[in-house]
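Quick one - inputs below.
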Amino acid sequence: DVVLTQSPATLSVTPGERISLSCRASESVDTYLHWYQQKPNESPRLLIKYASQSISGIPSRFSGSGSGTDFTLSINGVELEDLSIYYCQQGNSLPYTFGAGTKLELK
Amino acid sequence: QVQLKETGPDLVQLTQTLSITCTVSGFSLTTYNVHWVRQPPGKGLEWMGAMWNGGGTDYNSAFKSRLSISRDTSKSQVFLKMNSLQTDDTAKYFCARLKRRVFDYWGQGVMVTVSS
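Output:
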C-alpha cells in the first residue's frame, strides 16, 4: 500500500501569511495526488486535484505542486476560514490511501 | 445537482452486522463509481472499498472478508454491509463519488457507534 506522510501534523498560522503543507508518498503516484479540506463535523471538500489542478469554486489562494513522491499544498494569504484539517489522497493504485492530515490552527 | 446521502443505524451491537445505504442523485451509478470511506472519531480517513460503474467491486484488504458492497441501480443506491463489528469500527462512514480517481462529491456521513 502507498503510505502518504503529511507534515507538519499541526501548523500554527497568522492570517495573511503564505504557508506550505507537505505530502510525501512511499512510492511514485505520478500526479494522482489530491488535496481535501475538512472542517469539524463536515465532509471532506476537494481543493486540488491531480497535484496542481484547481477546482471550480475554490479560492485562488489555494494551489498545489509536485509529482512522483513529493507534493505541496500552498495557501497564499491564510484566512480564518482556512483553519481546518487538510488531507492528501493518492488515486494511483488501490487501495486508495490518505495522509494523516495537517491541522491548521491560529497562532 | 449531485448529492449523496448515507442512511444507517446510530448504534450497532458488538459482533453484529452494520448496514448502510448510500442514495445518490444527479448522476447514474452506471456512469460513475461510488466508494466508501470511514473516519474514526478524531482520526483520519480510511478507504474501505469501491462499487465501480460496471458493477464490479474492490475492497481494502484491511477488512478481509467482513465487508460487502452492492448496489441497486434502479433505486440509485449503493449498500455497505460489514459483519463482526468491533469497538474500533466506531466511525463516521461516508460514501463518495469517484470521478477519474478523484473523490469529487461526498455524502454527509453517518456516525456509527459499536456498543458492547
